[in-house]
Amino acid sequence: MIGFLPSLYAQSGLSSSRTGALTALAAFVNIGGSASAGLLLNRGIPARWLLRVGYLGMAIMTLFAFGQFTQGLPVLRYAAVLSFSAMGGMIPGTLFMLAVSVASNERTVSTAVGWVQQLSSMGMFLMPPLLAQLAGRAGGGLALDLAGLCAGIAAGTAAGNEPGPERSGSR
What we know:
By secondary structure, this protein is mainly α.
């Protein structure tokens, strides 16, 4: 979503300086989500719960940010964008912790973390142009519905997968 903000704001007539500031703030709150995940994991909140909140929160905030029912409410839409970004920030921090905790031994931690990083980067590189292509062909609403559906599927997957007790401890 963050990658689409500059063009969405430009289409709505905002100045480039305001567009840049709003987009930067949306990207910045993502850091808070990531840091929050670390703090919550350290306090014993299960990774499964953080992933559910992150994915489901992103799906719900997508509806608020782009849904027809919020069309005349730009402040609510921007609040949804900020919430989307903050909740989405919880996911990478949680996944990196899981990568460390599910590595078979200390020598494979770097490989597990590397896989998480590579797959995350690949998703961030490939998904925006794929969604843009879909939006161009089928209309923006369908692309956003698909993005929300993907987040919901990810939340459902997160609900069913968690390391067993023998692997859930930190190293």
